[in-house]
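Z., the sequence and structure:
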Amino acid sequence: MNQQLAALAAMAEAAGAAIMAVRGSGDLGLVSKADDSPLTRADLAAHRLIAAALAEAFPGVPLLSEEGAGSPYAERAGWRRLFIVDPLDGTKEFVKELGEFCVCIALAEDGFPALGAVHVPVWDKTYAGGLGLGAFRREAGGPWVSIAARRPDPAGLTVLASRSHPSPETEAYLAGFAVRERITAGSALKFCLVAEGRADLYPRIGRGTREWDTAAGQAVLEGAGGSVRTLDGKRLAVNKADLYNPPFIARGLGDQ
């Protein structure tokens, strides 16, 4: 496996251990951010760990993190390479004691995710990949195994939907497809389920996700042979002036 990819995966797993330590303490330190989204001690602990590890391993490469200080676009526009991090993607699921929260770390180059790692702490499962690098999964620190997106069954698609953000726009989009099965999942895990061939399609039609929610999962899915594209067919970009993503479709192989 690519050395940089392995390094990001190890950082994500270490951050996952820090998150689980907070979860086990019984003191989440839950507060609300300015946009009313939840923030916990686990988010902050994971952010500090990842920021320090990235600064040591990749000195000089800037960091865009959900829990870090924001940089104006006038500054970011000159960043050819940057890390895009969500230290705890799925804080709502974490607070509800569901298992579908993740640690997401991506390295972006020239406006797109180049490689990324997604760790699911409760499952002790890690996904890693990047366009041209392949995609991989391991459990409980075991060996890495290759994963690949699949071609859909002609009988119908397996579609992923957000647990926390149902969307009437998404329902309208799916009305044009033969859907055999729906799976509800939280956080960046949805990209990984498509990447490992357990689902075919993850449409996110409504606005709401930001780059740190998607960059690492996009890298994994693209490494597995899938794609993440806007409704006009363009590859989903990062380090944009507006950090909110436009509507996008994440898919496995084929034209579904």
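Residues 157-251 form a domain with the D-Maltodextrin-Binding Protein; domain 2 fold (CATH 3.40.190.80). The radius of gyration is 17 Å.

Let me know what you think.
H.
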